[in-house]
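can u do me a favor
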């Protein structure tokens, strides 16, 4: 019986060493560097309906990591033309390419129910302008495998409304 336990112990010891080695390799390769939202290049109003506004923001984002990151959020506060529109949600998750700075289209939805008071009256005049001062605040959530991390967003910039004259 003692020799049987000794054989199992040696067998388990080998597997423990193998799992420790591969586990160490996996977690050392998963070092995370902060994703940076560099700026907003353009805003495109996709559609307006009875329920809200759908827009696409073309954002320049730097992903310094050597793996893809999926970005989502549901608490971005949007100000356009000095008027706070309210909380916007990312309708489609965005996959950031690995180790590159690129421009990504981010689809946002803003429901009229979530709009700040007075924003609905100002919306038509804002949409008729060629460029507007835009402010985006909140957190974006990046996810890789089972791990996720929030990174803050605080941008103030004048941007062009694409599709407007």
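np, heres the sequence
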């Amino acid at each position: 019986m003692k020799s049987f336990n000794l054989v199992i112990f040696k067998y388990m010891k080998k597997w423990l060493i193998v799992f420790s080695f591969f586990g160490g390799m996996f977690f050392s390769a998963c070092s995370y560097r902060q994703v940076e939202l560099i700026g907003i290049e353009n805003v495109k109003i996709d559609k307006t309906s009875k329920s809200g506004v759908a827009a696409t923001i073309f954002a320049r984002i730097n992903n310094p990591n050597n793996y893809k990151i999926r970005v989502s959020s549901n608490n971005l506060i949007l100000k356009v033309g000095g008027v706070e529109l309210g909380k916007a949600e990312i309708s489609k998750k965005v996959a950031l390419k690995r180790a590159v700075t690129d421009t990504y289209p981010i689809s946002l939805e803003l429901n009229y129910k979530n709009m700040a008071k007075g924003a609905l009256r100002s919306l038509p005049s804002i949409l008729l302008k060629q460029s507007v001062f835009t402010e985006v605040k909140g957190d974006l959530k990046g996810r890789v495998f089972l791990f996720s991390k929030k990174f803050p967003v605080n941008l103030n910039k004048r941007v062009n409304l694409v599709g407007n004259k």
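The longest helix spans residues 2-29. hope that helps!!
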